Every structure is written in structure tokens, then in C-alpha cells.
Amino acid sequence: MTLVRCTEAARTFGQGDQAVVAVHGSTCAVEPGARIAITGSSGSGKSTLLHLLAGLETPTGGAVEWPELGNSAAERSRDIAVVFQGPSLLPALTVAENVGLAAVLTGVSETEADRRAAAAMETVGVAMLTDQLADTLSGGQAQRVAIARAIALRPRLVLADEPTGQLDGETGAHVLDVLMAAVAETGAALVVTTHDPAVAGRLGEHWQMNDGRLVVPAREGVR
Ligand SMILES: Nc1ncnc2c1ncn2[C@@H]1O[C@H](COP(=O)(O)OP(=O)(O)OP(=O)(O)O)[C@@H](O)[C@H]1O
After folding, report:
1. Separation of 10 CA from ligand 1 center, angstroms?
2. What is the topology classification, in CATH, of domain 34-56+70-204?
3. Best mutation site among 24, 48, 194, 215 for ligand 1, i.e. most ligand atoms within 8 A of its Cβ?
């Protein structure tokens, strides 16, 4: 039932003297329903590990597999949604268009995408922003719309890279509430990278990145 499994997966950028080992051989697994925080200092490799789990980066060592999701990028694009840290919306499109577009790109019909977009906007509390252009949103609103876009895919796994990193404490806490409620409603597993102990404390499992080396508590590791 494993959604994604890393077996000694590593990622090095550059070559020779310039090589940076962002992630050393790392072994971990994400099961359905998981709530995982990946913590670590800046530059410790959290985003790179998240990108490996998403299939956005190819490992330079070891392997990443998606036993429950299929190993082709096309199959994964329907089942894995990524929420990025910074602005990721298309500024000239409305909120509804942004939320529906990702679903359309994975092959969902426009009617179904509109339906899913409306439901997702309702879930995260941005229905009143439907016709607003994305570049007029506040940071917190934009991040809630990015979460709506993610869940409109009906993913089985949501990977969020510092989803509250650019928000003030109160707004960030509210965005995390929205994200947790959205995955609870859709049944998706959730992996979040964060610097913030308060965010990590809200997730069930806690993985630590130390200078590119992943520490997964034994009890919560590979099953
Ligand atoms: N595309 C890239 N090319 C070269 N080096 C990279 C690339 N992406 C990441 N790195 C390097 O890999 C290391 C890990 O970066 P990564 O972004 O994964 O860390 P992080 O823990 O997510 O940091 P932050 O919390 O600041 O976002 C850093 O030394 C970074 O400079």
C-alpha cells in the first residue's frame, strides 16, 4: 500500500569540485493517510527530498518508486499534488481558472474540472474570490488557492514545500488548518517541509534532515 518509497535515494547537483550532495542515500516510505513533517535547517536538503518524492527530481543514486501510484510521470501527475512555497499561481488568470487548470491538464474534462474547482474553493474557504485575478490576492489567500488547486486534482498524496514559510504566524497557522482539513476531507497523505516546530508538531511523523542526511525515527520508518 506504499505510496512512495525511497531506497538509498540520493541527489547530487553539479560535478567534480563543484558537486553538492543535497541528499545522501535516504530510505523512507509514505503510506496512505500519513502526516509527515520534514524538518531541518536551511540548505539541509528538505526541498530536494520532497522533489524526489514528487518525481520532480531524478535520483543520482538509489531509487524512488511509487508502488501504489504507477511509475510513469503521467500516472503520478494525477495522484501527486505539490504545493510550493512561493507564488505559484498564474497571475493573469482568475482564482477559479487557476484552481481548475491543473485538473484539466491531467485530462479531466472542463465540466468536471469546474465542478472540482468549485468544491475545492469551498473546502479551503476561497469561494468568494472565484472571479478575482490571482495577482490581486494577499499571500495567505494565494496559498489557500494553491491548496485548492492541489486538492482539485483529487490526489492521493500532497507534498507541500514550506507552505507557510512566507506568511506571518497567524496567517500561516490558518493556512495549515486549511491544508490539514483539506487532506482529512479528501483522504490524501500529506508531507510538509518546514523550519517551524509549531508546524511540525501538528503532523504525526517527524523526519529530520541533517546536512543532507535523513533521519527517520525507527518506529515510523520503512514498514
Ligand atoms: N538545482 C540546484 N542546483 C545546485 N544546487 C542545488 C540545487 N537545488 C538545491 N541545491 C543545493 O542543495 C542543497 C540543499 O538544498 P535544498 O533546497 O534541498 O535545502 P532546503 O533544506 O530545502 O533549504 P531551504 O529550507 O533554505 O529551502 C543546498 O546546498 C542547495 O544549494
Report:
1. 13
2. Rossmann fold (3.40.50)
3. 48
